[in-house]
Amino acid sequence: MNRLTPSPLTRAIVGIVVGAFFAIPLVSTLIYTLRMPDGSLSWSRWTGLFDPHTVAALKPLWTGLGNSLVLCVVTVAIVLLLLAPTMVLVALRFARLRRAFEFAVLLPISIPAIVLVVGLAPIYQQIGRLFGTGAWTLAFAYGITVLPFAYRAIQASIDAVDLRTLAEAARSLGAGWTAVIVRVLAPNLRQGLLAASLISIAVVLGEFTIASLLNRQVFQTAMVVVQKQDPYTPAIFTLLALVLAFTLLLLIGRAARGTRKARP
Amino acid sequence: MTVVTTAGVDAAASASTPARRGSWSWLGLVPFAAYVLLFLALPSVLAVASGFFDRRGAFTWDNITALGDPLIVETFANSAGLSLLTAVIGALAGALVCYAMLGLHPEGLVRSAVDAAAGVLAQFGGVMLAFAFIATIGLQGVVRLFLLDAFGIDIFANGTWLYDLPGLVLPYIYFQIPLMVITFMPALSALRPQWAEATLTLGGSRRAFWSYVGIPVLAPSFFASLLLLFANAFSSYATAAALASQGAEIVPLRIRSALTSETVLGRENLAGALALGMIVVVGIVMFVYSAVQRRAARWYQA
Q1: Which of residues 78-107 of A touch B (CB under 8 A)?
Q2: How near does any CA of chain A get to the CA of B67, in Å?
Q3: Residue of A82, A106, A118 to mutate, interface with B, max B Cβ within 10 Å
Q4: Which pLDDT does position A255 carry in this prediction?
Q5: I want to staple A110 with a disulfide (CB 3.0 to 4.6 A). Which of B76, B181, B273, B286 is the partner?
Q6: Which stretches within chain A are classed as H helix?
Q7: Does the CB of B215 have a partner CB in chain A at under 8 Å?
Q8: Cross-chain CB nearest to A28 (options B29, B143, B260)
């Protein structure tokens, strides 16, 4: 059917070699968590995770995870309540600004987090004075790091529907602007908004650079702390996080495919 | 990466009616603009500007001249070398994976699984990746002990390189290949089977197709992806930070020690100067990337 396709043999060789390169560290990590000092294999480290004794030893990890979940909520709020309405406004009223807007929101790709954190340090000293040093304040910085990903996801949805016609139709039927945005536009963009939220969660849960250099306790920094005493539990959490992330990404993929099908 | 979003711009712009004069709708842009100014523009400017001042706020060239210090130059060379090596290996291996997936149904099981896996693994770079490699080829790593017990091979015979610069190569390749798959697959999918058929009809071979049509068409996309991988490795911090808890062989780790210790090389605010150096390198690479990508994008319009 297609003269470009590689032969099944080529496909198999590439699949096996590259597959092995990616599988070996993951399988090794699994065996690492199962291997007991005497050489036998056991799931006891996995089942012992919720043991009252270990719960105390893993306190930093649970604190960090709690902080990270709060950060997920605040970051998603920034995406849904600040970025998304602004994108709708740009699409409806300021189409000429779109190029400049796009440049600004894609900029964080080109600014390494390690550079951003040098400039964020003095700003967070001020924020510490205003709002205290609670972990949730990191969400202001995370909102910036997720901008490019969230923007792409939402923009794909905006491109797929005719916002202007929808908004004008709703307005001429007597809807106020709040009703237009909440009851007409948001439902039409829900796949993009969902994908943007999921990818923001994935990025926030995996963020280490900014949190560690601003001395905030989040999931990833707690993993490093715990790893110094107990290398096995972070390995277990690594595998769990990978499975969770893979599931999230499959969901995003399905959401994105849904958007594509909705297009004429 | 930007290619996805630029296609609809002109259509949207031409279809739009100008914003109503005297309307107050621009006020709606203010909160977001303020947010971006405060948390993106201001930190970037502060990061770079702080390199030009000493602790008391007086202007100085000291930090900038410190970039010429042999130790700092070596750090930048290490970073560039590591990024280039992993970008080239990642780009070649990733392109091979894309080629192997050519002709598979885009919504089929293999493609969606590989897409999702690539999405996860490209973001996997971080402390968790470091843990996975410590579990694999660390001192107590499963693969290391297996090689030692079964074949008597000690991968650390010449020192435990995992926690040093050479130890970053494998983990970096681990997140570079998936990023290559994500960025290069659209370009490879845009190769039209008709071009191959045309070549074959005109008496050319498969080899002729690849050397006269396929590779020349794909070269700009490949080069653009290579640049993106380079920038990706150059700015990466978390994996290295988790593996090398003390060292400062690459620029991001040097920034860490400049931020956490009072003075490095007896200079204050060196972090700002290092940040400036990084922004210049990544900025140039990303600028060339978007220029090449724009040129490559003309083959995408299906």
Answers
A1: 78, 82-83, 85-86, 89-91, 93-99, 102, 104-107
A2: 16
A3: A118
A4: 63
A5: B286
A6: 8-34, 44-47, 52-57, 59-78, 84-93, 98-106, 113-131, 139-160, 163-172, 177-179, 186-188, 190-206, 209-213, 219-229, 232-262
A7: no
A8: B143
Tell whether B231 lies on the interface with A, counting CB pairs under 8 A.
yes
Domain span at residue B287 reads 29-104+180-299
For chain A, 264 residues long, give each residue's pLDDT as a single digit of tens.
456 677 888 888 888 998 899 889 999 999 888 887 777 777 877 777 777 777 777 788 888 889 999 999 999 999 999 999 999 888 888 888 888 888 889 888 888 888 888 888 888 888 888 887 778 889 999 999 999 989 988 988 888 888 888 888 888 898 888 888 888 888 888 888 888 888 888 888 888 989 988 888 898 888 888 888 888 888 888 888 888 878 877 776 666 665 554 444
Per-residue pLDDT at B18 exceeds 70: no
**Mean pLDDT value across residues B260-264:** 63
Per-residue pLDDT reduced to its tens digit, B210-219: 888 888 888 8
B23 part of a folded domain: no
Residues of A in contact with B255 (CB under 8 A): 114-115, 118
CA distance B196 to B204: 9
Residue B102 has pLDDT above 90, yes or no: no
**Which CATH number characterizes residue B46's domain?**
1.10.3720.10
Cα dihedral B81, B168, B126, B291 in deg (nearest 10): 20
Instruction: Please name the residue of chain B whose CA is at the shortest distance from the CA of residue A91.
Output: B12
Q: Is the pTM of this model over 0.90?
A: no
Looking at the structure of chain B, the number of domains it has is: 1
* CA angle (B219, B220, B222) in 5-degree steps: 65
- Decide if B123 and A113 are in contact by the 8 Å CB cutoff: no
Does A140 sit within 8 Å of B9, measured CB to CB? no
Residue B8 within a domain:
no
Would B114 be classed as within a structural domain? no
The C-alpha angle B5, B124, A244, rounded to 5 degrees, equals 95
B148 to chain A, any CB pair closer than 8 A? The answer is no
- Whether residues B13 and A95 touch (CB distance < 8 A) is answered with yes
pLDDT at residue number B115: 81
pLDDT higher than threshold 60 for residue B20:
no
Residue B156 one-letter amino acid: F
In a domain, B143, yes or no: no
**Token couple for A233:** 């539990």
C-alpha distances in Å from residue B289, one per residue of A244, B190, B282: 32, 19, 10
How far, in Å, CA of A38 to CA of B113, rounded? 37
The SS3 call for residue B244 is coil
Which residue intervals of chain A bear CATH 1.10.3720.10?
A: 52-262
Q: B48 and A121: CB-CB below 8 Å?
A: no
